[in-house]
Design goal:
By secondary structure, the protein is of the alpha+beta class. The chain contains four helices and five strands; from the N terminus they run H-H-E-E-H-E-E-H-E. The chain folds into two domains: 37 residues, no CATH class; 106 residues, 2-Layer Sandwich (Alpha-Beta Plaits). The longest helix is centred in the C-terminal third of the chain and has 20 residues.
C-alpha cells in the first residue's frame, strides 16, 4: 500500500467546502477489506475498555465488592466446563446496594443434545460459581433470577 498525504487548507468561507470535498475523496479510497472487517473491529474496540459495575458479595469478615467483569469472566469459565455448551453472551444486573439481581446467559448448544437438560446443567454451574464468588449474597431461592438462553445450535465441535 502506498502512503498518501492530503493537505487541506481551511481558510475563508470555502474552508468547510474543501474539508467536505477532502473527506469525500478519502471515502472513495476505502479498502474493501476494511469495509468487511469494520463491524468486528468496532465491536472489539467497544469491548476493550468498559467501566465495570461493582457486585456485592459477603463472607464471614463482612461485605466486599467484585467487579462485574470478574463475575462475567468466572461465569464464562463455569459454562465452558459444561460439555456441549459454550457461552455466548453473559449479562448481570444489580439492584439496590449493588446486590446481584439477575443473570442472563446465552449459550451455543451442541446439535442433537437435550436442550432442557443442557440448560439445567448451565444453570447449576452458574449458581455454583456465584455461590463460590459472592458467598452469602449469592443466589438463594428467588433472590437472583438466572435465565439461560440458547441462541445458537451447532454441529461443529470447534464452536463449543
Amino acid at each position: 500500500m502506498s502512503e498518501r498525504t492530503v493537505s487541506v487548507l481551511v481558510a475563508g468561507p470555502s474552508g468547510a467546502e474543501r474539508a467536505s470535498r477532502a473527506a469525500q475523496l478519502l471515502r472513495l479510497h476505502t479498502d474493501a477489506g476494511w469495509v468487511a472487517m469494520r463491524e468486528n473491529v468496532l465491536a472489539r474496540a467497544l469491548r476493550t475498555f468498559r467501566p465495570s459495575a461493582p457486585v456485592r458479595g459477603r463472607h464471614e469478615l463482612g461485605d466486599f465488592f467484585v467487579s462485574s467483569a470478574v463475575v462475567v469472566d468466572q461465569l464464562r469459565r463455569a459454562v465452558e466446563a459444561v460439555p456441549f455448551a459454550a457461552p455466548d453472551t453473559i449479562t448481570c444486573v444489580t439492584g439496590d446496594g449493588e446486590e446481584l439481581r439477575e443473570v442472563t446467559i446465552e449459550i451455543v448448544a451442541g446439535y442433537g443434545r437435550p436442550l432442557l437438560r443442557l440448560a439445567g446443567q448451565v444453570h447449576t454451574a452458574a449458581h455454583a460459581c456465584l455461590r463460590q464468588l459472592l458467598g452469602a449474597l449469592a443466589p438463594a431461592g428467588e433472590r437472583v433470577h438466572s435465565h439461560v438462553h440458547i441462541g445458537h445450535i451447532t454441529a461443529d465441535p470447534r464452536l463449543l
